[in-house]
From TrEMBL:
Endpoints of the signal sequence: 1-23
Provenance organism: Marilutibacter penaei
Database matches in PANTHER family: PROTEIN YGIW
InterPro entries listed in its UniProt record: BOBF_sf (IPR036700), CarO-like (IPR005220)
Keyword Nucleotide-binding attributed: no
Descriptive protein name: NirD/YgiW/YdeI family stress tolerance protein
Keywords: Signal
SUPFAM superfamilies documented for this protein: Hypothetical protein YgiW
Length: 119
């Protein structure tokens, strides 16, 4: 093997040894891992990311629902395509991830991005 080939091989081996999957950061974060409806209603911060676990109590209209986590009730907007394949009713525990939508003339609500069934 020539010196050039040996040098190329020596430089390439560390690159090839890097694992295909990368670990993700799992330490502390400034983003709250979980919230409560009561805390959101007491201090709604527009566009703040939130995570809520509870149930949908009822449908208000097109993509609008009332959600409760046991600490209070809040309107949530959920796009039809964001619902899981499994049916959800008022007894199905779910986790919602989204952001607070606060306006001057209305109560705060949550614009939901992700719904997960709680197992």
């Amino acid at each position: 093997m020539s010196r050039t080939h040996a040098l190329i091989l020596a430089l390439a081996l560390p690159v090839l040894a890097v694992p295909a999957a990368r670990a993700q950061y799992v330490g502390p974060s400034d983003v709250a891992a979980a919230d409560s409806v009561a805390a959101i209603l007491a201090d709604p911060v527009d566009d703040r990311d939130v995570t809520l676990t509870g149930v949908i109590l009822r449908k208000l209209g097109d993509e609008m629902y009332i959600f409760s986590d046991g600490t209070g009730e809040i309107r949530v907007e959920i796009d039809d395509e964001d619902f899981p394949a499994s049916p959800i009713d008022e007894s199905t525990r779910i986790t919602l991830r989204g952001e607070i939508d606060k306006t001057l003339m209305a109560d705060p609500e949550v614009d939901v991005d992700v719904i997960e069934l709680v197992r």
